[in-house]
Amino acid sequence: MYLSTITLSAAATGLFSVAAPVSAAVPSPGFQVAGESIRLPQDPTISPDGRRLAFGWQDDIWSAPIGGGEATRLTYHAGADSDPVFSADGTQIYFTSDRSGRAQIHVMPAEGGPARQITHDSNRKRIHDVSSDGRYLLISQSTDRGWHYSESSRAFLLDTQGEEPKRMLFDAGVMDAALSPDGTKVLFERGRSSPIRKGYEGPQAAQLWLADLTTDSTDGQATLTRLDKDRERFQNVAAMSPMWAPDSQTYYFMSDPAGVFEIFEGKLGSDDTRQVTHVGKGGSDDGVFSPVLSRNGSTLLMRHRFDLVSCNPKTGELSPIALSAAGDGTSNALERKRITNASNVAFTADGKQMAFVAGEDVYVMDRILKEPVRITFTPHDESNLLFSADGKRLYFTSDTSGEVDIWEATHSQEDGIWWMADDFELRQVTEDRGVEDSLQLSPNGTHIGYTKDTDLFVMDEDGTDQRRIASMWATPSFDWSPDGKWMVYDTQDDDYNSDIYIVPVDGTREPFNLSRHPDSDSSPVWSGDGKRIAWVGRRDGEEADIYVVELAKASDEETARDEKLKKALEAMKDKKGGKKGAKADGKPGAGPDGAAKPDAGSKADESKKDDASTKEKEDQKEDQKKEPQVVIDFDGIFERVDRLRYSDSYESALIWFGDGTKLGFSATIEGERGFYSVGFPRPEKPEKIAAAPLSADRWLTEAKEFVGHKGGVPASMSDRGKTETYEFEVRAKRDWREFRMIAFDQAWRAMRDRFYDEAYNNKDWYAIRGKYRPMAAECLGAAEFSELMNMMLGELNASHMGHRGNADPLPELDSNSDWTAQTYHLGLRVELDSEGPGLVVESVIPGSPCSLSRSLVLPGETLLAIDGAEVGPQTDLEKILTMEQLRELDLLVRSKSGEERTVSVRPTFSVAGLLYDEWIENTRAEVERLSEGKLGYLHIQGMNFTSFRQMEEDLYHAGAGKDGLVIDVRFNGGGSTTDHVLTALTQPVHAITQSRGSGEGYPQDRKIYASWNKPIVLMCNEHSFSNAEILSHAIKQIGRGRLVGMRTAGGVISTGAVGLIDGGMVRMPMRGWYLVGTGEDMELNGCEPDIALWNDPTWSTPGGEDRQLAKAVEVLAEDVAAEKAKPRVKLVPASQLRK
Q1: Which terminus of the chain is more exposed, N or C, with fewer CB under 10 A?
Q2: Region (Disordered) spans which residues (predicted)?
Q3: pTM greater than 0.85 (yes/no)
Q4: One of 128, 380, 447, 800 is an active-site residue; which one?
Q5: Same domain for 860 and 991?
């Protein structure tokens, strides 16, 4: 059905659009002007007296009166400036900027002016607060105190004058923090929460803690006390963003006990809290973000939805703050670009003309002149270009109408030359909510195949008679039979196994499963002669191979001799239908050598030859037009599937040469990656055609070549691999306001169509679109747009979500250097209370430079100097170890006995991986100690094959001679290998073997993996995520062992990703996981261990106690004792049975 018709001039200069429900009007392009509203300000902060505010917006720092009005831009740097904090007296603003190449802390006057860089190392720091005397910043940064992000960050006081080294306040992980006005206490946040995600309840919710720095404890450490409480079954809500009142006893924080983030007030020594704000009153679930309190306690500042509001903390009354930009803004919404790359390419059948998408619009061009002519004038995403068989129509998909539909372009040129046309007519072919994709013309040119959402469709070439060919839940890839009567496609079943199907276009029979295999088969292609279908299949491990089926029995039954016989008979035929002149037998007309002589009738003969030649060419054209006969013998077809084996080749991108006698593919053959071909019907050794195939390639039968693009440039390739590219340049304009709207729509539609829960977590997805979409055009900065997108996605309260994107029209940091100074690590940890002289070594990280024999430093020794410069408690080691060029350093070290020596050492870039290894060894040693050597320990770092292979090794290494095994998936972020782990842990025990002189056992080479059948305990915690949670649920469901630790996060959805027009992407949660026993969704339903307990915040520090580990050892010891108490089977040899 044709729904819209638009005539365009190639000389048009405006932006083409059609009326649509999604394409609402947006502001005019151009520079930001004075008075334009500022929306979604980032990282707000408030002056000590509560009269002014500052915030980040479009990568700069801005300031405004607390009542709103015009905001003044304080920084004008192309670098990204963020996280402003007022000094204690309000005269300065501290902020973070990457203007030097790395994120560093800077300070500038509160009214703007030159900025001074305070930090100079390569470790990123976050500013949280300022001390009351203005001397110190409360910051946090990652350290060597733990390997996981949740345990490695520490709170420090940083001297703003640079005269003292930064000082760690207490030894526990910190996510956010606030320093009390009297400097004696720190409120800090642990856990992982974001107010952007609405309604999360679970153990990962942020916790609020108090660190009392004045405590006179025996170990000299601060006393840490948790202020919020656990809910039933640890379905906790967040307590985050702590703020101190001036009395250092009253505090404020953000929490969502009713599902809406509000501000609450608490007092030390009391469990009671008072709700300050009531933004959820009336049923709204839009909470507050990023709260801060003025130093005098008079005013709270926060963001509600898209704008800042102030609040009286006594009454809870909110006052909106409207902000506008004073002077020119930071960006130009209208971007002009020269574009030389195409994202989509199509050629006419003769290969002489091409169409491509550049800068989101469609252009046409020839091979010689190469002057592109623009067909569409939209800011929307055009794709899937396809010429009709006669080259008179050009089809494509576009979301101009608000949904992705098929459009048709035609021109008025009678000669068929697109690039000479002045006017083009566009017709909308489809109009529905479905997403049309993957347009493909039938070989006879009469039909177009395409996918709509997940189904396979066909329509007549003119767009009529649109009909569904096959229904499925997963979008297929497909190909036509050369006679246009069949289609072959791949699709997944309910077990996500992909198979190859063939189906007649006329619907006379049901789809037929051609591959019928439990391993993945995909990407089918039909040969040009109609005899074969090839596809890629995976059978052994991860390697893919080519599979080919002979569709007709007769073709499969042909022998090599049959092929030779055909060739021999062909060689004997007279190609021109007659004899080659007179016989070479000495008769008239023959020369002495038997060659025919010219005679008087030669001119007439030549004329006859010309006529014959012309007729032959016409016959060849007729032969090309004839549709190949496609014969499919379904009986015994599975036995005719052959596998082409080339070791470690990983074939992909299959494409048939025109006549079907050669199959092209990408592969690595004998270690060399390239584009190869193999002949049929007797495939032998592949022949390399080129270094790589063209992208999105297609074979043109008439032109006898491949066409596609190479590195984004339209290109053609001969059957011998000769490649020709067709470079171009177009000048395009992009209005980023429209661009943002389109990207928003794409993300919203993707979730509408593919989010795993069709009820959208009981949210009105259309209403959510209406709430957020008007803001999209106002978010020119990447940070603001990403914030908006994540707010929209957060409405679904789902894991595995998020928007990423850093493209925007803001000025870019133009650095002339490709390096910055780097902070290195010696591998030494020093005692926090070293009194000097020197620094006492607390521990040495195994595997680090100072653990090596040639540069060994031992715990308890004292580091006195580095390269001749004395070090002590007042030394900033980070500053010394920050170097422009890595070099060897000389350390002056004093042993415990008082002897001094020089150690030459070359520092390392990072110790992150070494910290993990250290934790594993220390934990393994602790299990050895607690169990008196009877139990083993292994940790699965991720649900990936690297970790799984390590687990297999550890089953022997850590389990050798042990009675039980502690298996730890704490801090495991997930992956996909649960079933492999279960295979190793649940191998059926059906027999016992024993050779003469050996003990009882079972042949390891008969098993799939190394296995473990003795008792286990599985450890999990709130940072066990996704596939690690699936494993935890599985162990509990099947009763393989008991679980100890903490309830898992409740984040279990299989995810993919969807790319957006602006270069960003959104993650796509597309598959839910449900418990077998109850049918309950694992999402928001973390696995509850049999024994649940928290570790203290200092558990991972030297001297800290891993209470969860101790409990796991205790539980496993009980289970081992119970297992040993069971009677054992005594082996009875046959010789004894015969007695």
Answers
A1: C
A2: 509-529, 571-628
A3: yes
A4: 800
A5: no
